[in-house]
Input
Amino acid sequence: MIGPLEELVKSFCRLPAIGQKSAWRLVLYLMERPEAEAYELADSIRNAREKLTICKRCFNYSENEICPVCSNLARDQGCICIVEKPVDAFAIEKSGRFRGVYHILGGVLSPLSGITADKIRIAELKNRVITEKPQELIIGFGGSAEAETTALYLARLFRNDNVRITRFARGLPAGLDLEYVDQITLTQALNERTDIIYGE
Ligand SMILES: [Zn+2]
Output
């Protein structure tokens, strides 16, 4: 039988990038802090899990069926920025310069790790392009090789859909996730975006 302390350590160990040692450090920290602080953390986790759902349009986290960005008519609903994960949209939002909407792809193509087109939200994106008829798709990926492959795949997929396809300007550090890119670089990448022309 394991006691509450070991139970908690075990839970922390399941989190990404948390090993046994860090788990113990976090658990002991929480035990030493005022009770209210520990409960606050527990409540925030419960709250987030209970209240948040996935936006039916862009697939970002949302408290409603349609998220505030997708339902904001002051934003350019015809300009869709495609990102890998919710945190990327969050980083772009924080820069405060993007006035369009998002599409959370849920990853990038990586056939070697089994991430094929059907494993991410490409069909959903295709569906949006057909029904919403956006003017522009901005590919907002970081600089990895998989991101590059995915960008070209998307450019090819939408080449006959009468939509402008752009990508963030080069200069984003190779292999770096968008979430770690500073706001000035991110704003620059967005402002100086370039067209992707898929030629056959
Ligand atoms: Zn949305």
